[in-house]
Amino acid sequence: MNGFALNLHTFHPMRNSSLLSLVRFIIPVLLVSVFVSCSPAKRVQKRGGYLHVSNTIKTDRPGINSDDLVNFAQPKPNNKILGLFRSGVWINDLFSGGRDTRTKRWLATKLGKEPVLLDSAYVDNSMIPMTIYLNNKGYFGAKVSRTIQLKRGRSKVRYFTHTSEPFKFGTISYIIAGDSLRYFMDGIQKSSLLKPGKQYDAYLIRDERERITRELRDIGYYAFSREYIFFEIDTSEYQRTADVAVRIENLRPRSGIKDDTVRYLNHERYFINNIYVNSNFADAASMGVTQTDTLAFRAKSDTLLRKSPDFYQIYRTQLRLRPIVLSRSLFIFPGQPYSQKYINLTYNRLQNLGLSRIVSVNVNPLAVSNDTLLGYRLLDCDIRMVRAPVNMFTVDAEGTVAGGYFGIGSSLGYRNRNIFRGAETLRLKLKGAFELEPDFNIEGIDKSSIFNSLESGFEAGLDFPTLLTPFKFKRLGLNSKATTSVDMGFNYQQRTLYTRYVSYLSFGYEWNASQVARHLFTPVELSSVSIVRDSIFSVYLKDLGDPRFLNQYTDHLVLAMKYSFVFNNQVLNSGKNYWFLRGNIESAGNVLNLYSNLFDAKTDINGNYTLFGIRYAQYLRTDIDIRFYQPVRQEQSIAYRTAFGIGVPYGNSLALPFEKGFFAGGANGLRGWPIRSVGPGEYYSKVKSSFERVGDIWMEANIEYRFPMYSFLNGGLFLDAGNIWLLKESQDFPQGHFQASRFLKSLAVDSGLGLRFDFSFFIFRIDGGIPVYDPGKLSGSRWFRPLKFQMRDINWNFGIGYPF
After folding, report:
1. Burial of 737 (0-12, 13-18, 19+ CB in 10 A)
2. What is this structure's pTM?
3. Is 750:775 a contact under the CB 8 Å cutoff?
4. Please, what is the end-to-end C-alpha distance for the chain in angstroms?
């Protein structure tokens, strides 16, 4: 997650020469590296063992996955820090000798790690599962050999595969008992995972068994299980093929039947009979409520699944939700074939309402009076919801940072999660903060106060668990968790140089198109910024000349429409690559500009159209953020990110509103610079300015290698590149506009190391970045010079969560 981020640039003067500083930094690192890497291995060897350091796989065919095979290798070497040295082994070895004390024992076992020693028995046993794996992948008759290298107290094991041409799937046939089952299998087998000509894979056969079971249970076969599915494999050595016969058996004989012949019974389809919904189960159970205390509710046929109106039995006692709200979350209906998919979907939708501590969706087969089966059975469905507190109050004290303003604050929040008995959520929040405003180096301004800035405000919001529109969306799909939100707020900021009033109102929708795709659409977002400037500050802004600074501290109004698309195909704990993508597009001022032109509205003294006496902004803005996450080894991964954005002011605006401009630098971007301190382009300034730099174009690329270090401590090596640019040439920012011919020369590049303290419920992050190439300097001094390195060159960033 990306959350709170604090950017801190430290300055520590160093009086020694740069070369001496570098030597003092490098020599201890080299000495520690040599000591850490050599000492444990030698001491282990003296005790009659070898420190096991690596397992590698040499495959004889490109199609064999060596990463899968190395997972079977035993023993596993101790983890390394930065892939260089095993600090845990060194700590264990350091505190294991001499007199035994409780402190030394704790340091050796808690901070340190026992060295992993070579065990040839483990090595030989590892080849057994490797061979089984190769056979399961179609390399029948495969063999695995190994070699062990012993050198300077260390051992390295290398495994070799010896395989022939893999077998492929031949014909896929089905042997199905029972006419009913055979009828449905005709459709199910079309999406089979087993394809003729595809390489034989026993793990794919396992997945096919699970798929068939799942799909049969989703069309009514409630009692069906994978134990009734068998696969018969017939291999041909000459053709190197494996024919597969999928056999599905009927039900086995019932216990207690005395008969010399084996009797098999057809699988039965189950249909939903009655549905009982208790939205307040704990209270109802304590009061002894029975099924006679229910209300028969008739739901409209307004969904993709309903073909006709349906009746639900809803318990009357202390009914917390309106029946129509409950029915929108139910995807099982009387007369519908049993479906595990719709049972799960109903459970998830009820749980996501946020009103219950516990939700259960249970089905109970109805008893039959004799042994004669009709070919189908009935199920009653019992839905129970154990209520959770509806009203919530929160009081928070917090450290704040926003746009360079540091301070302390507090907030009081209230939340009602069922305000209109329709699972609507009401959100209220009051907040206040005292902040330390950056020094703008303007003469005549009082700088005596520590906290020279005050901020306060309130926020209010209302969330509806559906799309409130004048028309229906029948093609949203079953996974479309939809929300309609109305938000408003007001913020008062008392600064040294000005007083600012910010108010906003928005109305928007959010819905899931699938399990990996999400849409956010805000048709109306209205914000107003009103500023009262100090007279000295007004003169200062006019002297600067650039319209961006004037716009930042001038009254303006934004009426925008926004759309965002989010894609995330991450599967937790799967160890697979995944993508994240977010695209945004925003348009503002077009409706107001159309109104102004149609009715020939008057302009202000600057020639701008206004609304309620306030100039409104007109622009088009879009950006995209693409990320790719690649696990490389156990608990190690590489994260790639690239992002691009552009904003074009037009019509009633000469420049983007400051809050809509792009910036670079900070804890989640170019980490070698403080926030909003990079660019635009190759702009160079002799005097350091406290004004935040914004641009019309933004490009950025990041790569980060993430690895475990010790227990809850993880590390990250990163490289960032990017910048912001202006669309047009500006006299106030020479070389600040985008030029394709100088694109590479205008890219800022940094690198560094980060520490992540992973406490499960949140991650605290420290990143130290060094500018490698700074386009904001003179051409002869842009590249980082290691011999002139000083600690003050490091830009420190603190944050919660990963940067991306």
Report:
1. buried
2. 0.78
3. no
4. 7
